[in-house]
């Protein structure tokens, strides 16, 4: 009950910040998400600092004002306090506190003071919280928020309204509890800003059902708590739903996250997600850049290989401007099955997922595991790059299996999708699951969406992990079986054909055949009568 109340208060804070943006002309503006996410993050970091400070110095919790008590500390004592804080806590000065801004609301140029405060926090914590581009430029934690308000005369009032809302409640109480609501909270925070808006790479939001299934199969219950010191990578990370799920399955302190995404918006959202989910230590590995053309994570000149890879790559996208740069000797080993050609029409239909999938296979450690969302057409294509990739996985015995998902599992696209599971250590049987008939269809705005129940999700996970054959649902096949079916990964092509047998006496058989003959005779008579009637009508038309 306490958790639900806290979630409600948090949602009310987010809604109130959106209402302020709307009141100042920024409702549905392209910059609104920057203001909402950055102000929310400022509040979160402020309260996290307060929690850590009171944990280290219990006397602060008893003070009438913990902010005033910290401000009264000597410079050396403040430095010592900050040194004792965890690496995921932002280093704040007394003038950075929300209470300090609250007390300075009548100061001239309050908007400048607000912006300067956020920028100073960003600069002070740049080494920990900055996201890098593939060219090495650092994207700091905060922008000058008030400058998104076009009317300069309204900036002070806007910043005052924001600061007044931030003091309504505190996040502090959640830091001492392991509340598992960050995923829902993050989704609510960004729900209006992470839709398919024509952007590139992973701005599609991955449904929780897909993320849960991928994480639970890559890291089964039997090995949880035993996996340690591993790397997890997403080359098209978006806001990080897949990475968060696998990190939770492994344990946040047992893994290091790596990612790359061409979208600056996605990289900023992923950084926020890492901060909320106790994964600040991985922020230096979050890169904004073109994974296909310039993969960033390297050991010297060689690409780093990862223990776990998860990805929901874009399926179709125009990459004709750099396509020929990929079709060279330099990239030949990575794109072993080929680079898609540029179609004469509809360049935006270029199958970029084929490049991501080959990059993932190339980036996997020996014995590593990966889960990738692919269009379902990939699993049965009879020729071309798709078949070449499947053949590579089968011939090199590095496939765990495939799950065909229901249609409309993604509300933003009508494309049917499957989840491909790669396991470089799996040298025996492969699991193929047809889950396309599961789920309940619901309306999601103007679109239709299919929702899986918790039981259906768990059934998919359990069937896969147990390598269990279930009639009309799953099969367990060998690599040789797959090769014999032209490398098809469609479970339906391996299901047994059912033939029903009945024991009949000679008399019963004769009666059954007589019945068939009678029905056929009736159909023939009906057909003949229909033919006569049509001829009459046609004959009549000729004389009209």
Textual characterization of the structure:
- With 544 residues, the protein is of the alpha/beta class.
- Helices cover 42% and strands 14% of the residues.
- The chain is elongated and about 100 Å long.
- The N and C termini lie far apart (81 Å).
- Residues 196-204 have low confidence and may be disordered.
If helices are DSSP runs of H or I spanning 4 or more residues, what is the number of helices? 20
Q: Any idea of the CATH topology of the largest domain?
A: Rossmann fold
Average predicted confidence as pLDDT: 87
The CATH architecture of the largest domain comes to 3-Layer(aba) Sandwich
How far from one another are the termini?
81 Å
The percent range for helix content is 40-55%
Strand order of the largest sheet: 2-1-5-4-3-8-9-11-10-12-15
């Amino acid at each position: 009950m306490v958790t639900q109340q806290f979630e409600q208060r948090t949602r009310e804070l987010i809604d109130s910040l959106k209402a302020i943006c709307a009141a100042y002309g920024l409702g549905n503006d392209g910059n609104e998400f920057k203001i909402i996410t950055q102000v929310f993050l400022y509040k979160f970091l402020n309260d996290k600092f307060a929690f850590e400070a009171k944990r280290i110095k219990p006397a602060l919790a008893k003070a009438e004002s913990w902010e005033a008590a910290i401000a009264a500390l000597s410079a050396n004592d403040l430095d010592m306090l900050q040194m004792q804080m965890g690496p995921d806590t932002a280093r704040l000065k007394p003038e950075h506190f929300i209470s300090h801004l609250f007390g300075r609301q009548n100061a001239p140029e309050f908007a400048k003071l607000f912006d300067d405060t956020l920028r100073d926090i960003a600069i002070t914590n740049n080494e920990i919280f900055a996201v890098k581009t593939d060219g090495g430029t650092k994207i700091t934690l905060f922008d000058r928020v008030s400058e998104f308000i076009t009317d300069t005369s309204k900036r002070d009032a806007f910043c005052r309204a924001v600061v007044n809302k931030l003091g309504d409640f505190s996040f502090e109480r959640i830091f001492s509890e392991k509340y598992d609501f960050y995923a829902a909270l993050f989704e609510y925070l960004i729900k209006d800003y992470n839709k398919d808006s024509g952007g590139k790479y992973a701005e599609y939001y991955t449904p929780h059902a897909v993320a849960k299934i991928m994480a639970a199969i890559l890291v089964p219950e039997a090995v949880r708590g035993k996996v340690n010191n591993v790397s997890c990578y997403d080359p098209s990370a978006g806001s990080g739903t897949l990475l968060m799920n696998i990190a939770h399955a492994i344990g946040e302190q047992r893994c290091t996250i790596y990612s790359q995404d061409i979208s600056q918006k996605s990289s900023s959202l992923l950084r926020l997600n890492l901060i909320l989910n106790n994964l600040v230590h991985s922020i230096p590995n979050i890169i904004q850049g073109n994974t296909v053309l310039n993969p960033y994570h390297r050991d010297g000149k060689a690409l780093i290989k990862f223990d776990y890879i998860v990805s929901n790559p874009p399926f179709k996208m125009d990459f004709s401007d750099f396509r020929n740069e990929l079709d060279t000797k330099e990239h030949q080993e990575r794109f072993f099955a080929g680079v898609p050609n540029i179609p004469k029409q509809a360049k935006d239909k270029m199958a970029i997922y084929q490049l991501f999938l080959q990059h993932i296979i190339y980036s996997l450690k020996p014995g590593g595991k990966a889960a990738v969302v692919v269009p379902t057409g990939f699993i049965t294509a009879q020729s071309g790059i798709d078949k070449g990739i499947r053949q590579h996985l089968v011939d090199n015995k590095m496939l765990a299996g495939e799950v065909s998902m229901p249609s409309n599992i993604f509300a933003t696209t009508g494309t049917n999708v499957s989840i491909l599971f790669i396991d470089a250590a799996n040298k025996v049987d492969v699991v193929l699951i047809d889950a396309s008939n599961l789920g309940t269809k619901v309306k999601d705005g103007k679109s239709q969406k299919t929702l899986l129940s918790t039981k259906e999700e768990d059934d998919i996970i359990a069937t896969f992990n147990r390598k269990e054959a279930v009639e009309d649902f799953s099969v367990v096949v060998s690599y040789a079986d797959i090769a014999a079916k032209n490398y098809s990964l469609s479970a339906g092509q391996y299901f047994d054909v059912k033939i029903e047998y009945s024991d009949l006496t000679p008399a019963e058989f004769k009666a059954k055949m007589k019945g068939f003959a009678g029905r056929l005779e009736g159909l023939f008579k009906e057909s003949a009568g229909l033919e006569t009637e049509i001829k009459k009508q046609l004959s009549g038309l000729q004389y009209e």
